[in-house]
Amino acid sequence: MVSAIGFYMMLALQESGIQEPIAVVDCFKGGTSASVWIKEADLARDADLKDAFLDKYHETIAGKSWEDFDRETKAYNLTVEKHNRDLAKYLKMHPDTSLSTAKNIVGHTPWPPPYRPDLYTRPSGLNETMLKQIEFGVFNQMVWYQGENDTDRAKYYDKLLPLLIHTWRQTLHDPSLPVKLIQLPGYADYPDNSGAEIRQTQLVVSRTVPQVDLVSFIDGGEEHNIHPTNKGTMGMRLGKIMAGDDYAGTPYVEKMDASSEGTKFRFVFKIARCQKLHLEKETYLKVKYFDKKVEQIKLNADNLQNNKLILELDDLPKEISYAYENYPHHIGLYNELNYPLSPFRVGFIKKVM
User: Fold this and answer.
1) What does the H/E/C string look like for 40-98?
2) For residue 10, how many other CB atoms are within 10 A of its CB?
3) DSSP string spanning 147-212?
4) Which helix (H) or strand (E) holds 310?
5) What's the pTM value of the predicted model, to 2 decimals?
6) What does residue 138 show for φ and ψ, rounded to 5 degrees?
7) From residue 216, how far is each of 145, 184, 220, 282, 313 by CA, in Å?
8) What are the domain boundaries of the chain?
């Protein structure tokens, strides 16, 4: 059974005129950290990953019997059942309310379940099981859409994601397997700004790991629904890109030039995979200064020049960012194919330019 995103991806591939049969192998599981898909030995080689994932897991299960695990699992299941009853009751009383709004009021499904040795969410759990089942397949592309369950420990994702890609390529016996890396859509309920941090890592990995292309879904999210319903637009976008008829991915900032003249500071962001940047709706850049002042700068046509985004400021900024938040409301920068510009954040040090 193919996922909804996979279905629309295949539809777009078919509509592109590809004559060959298209086969898709689903190898995924919802609610998983990247650590679930990485070899235990690889996690153990990195001190930070070992401490955050392996050691935590082993400490949690140490000294427990199977009766203990079963008791903890039963208690967790009862919590989930109560949540589901409360959610169903609320939706029945408020039939016009969206699931996203209802979950924001009632609460989200309790997750994750308590650790146990046979739980698929344990570190390396699916690397040792599900991934092993496809290791002798031959694939010409891979799609990776994950990261939601690493937002509680987002600071480790810059190590997890490259290691995961290496693991899959090694397991599938193809060190240069092309990867389409899906950038997470917006979702408000991640802790702190961790959703934005995960997206920034996805952007960096797509630029630094060979044969990895970013496909941004930043404009496809729902504020309080971690599984957005707009599968068609996102899947069709992915399929068109995978067909190989235009860009290899969605646009991103590949270079920034900074200059100063008098008291003015000028920043020119060159956008890759773009010939003509345009505004679809009201859009802002956030600028943070060294004196802690924060400014929201509304963009207009004067800020855009072909594939460049231009910004002039009166003071040297500490940071310039675009859509760098869990659920950005002002996403309006697109290339000529209506692919969204990836969110980004650029920091500066305080010195004379």
Assistant:
1) HHHHHHCHHHHHHHHHHHHHHHCCCCHHHHHHHHHHHHHHHHHHHHHHHHHHHHCCCCC
2) 19
3) -GGGGGGGGGHHHHHHHHHHHHHHHTT-TT--EEEEEPPP-TTSSTTHHHHHHHHHHHHHHHSTTE
4) strand 308-313
5) 0.92
6) -115, 120
7) 10, 7, 9, 19, 28
8) 4-63+111-243, 252-347
Class of 252-347 in CATH: mainly beta
- What are the pLDDT digits (tens) for 91-129? 999 999 888 788 889 988 898 899 999 999 999 999 999
Cβ neighbourhood burial of 13 (10 Å; 0-12, 13-18, 19+)? buried
Q: 352 is written with which tokens?
A: 């004379």
Residue type, 213: D
Please check the confidence at residue 353 and state whether its pLDDT lies above 50.
Answer: no
Tokens coding 144:
């990776």
Tokens of 47: 């001190």
Token representation of residue 242? 């995978």
Measure the CA–CA gap between 275 and 101, rounded to whole angstroms: 38
Q: Which residue blocks in 210-349 are alpha helix, DSSP H?
A: 231-243
List beta partners, residue 222.
225
Angle among Cα 288, 290, 291 to the nearest 5 degrees reads 100
Structure token digits, residue 66: 């199977």
DSSP 303: G
Say which CATH superfamily domain 4-63+111-243 falls into: SGNH hydrolase (3.40.50.1110)
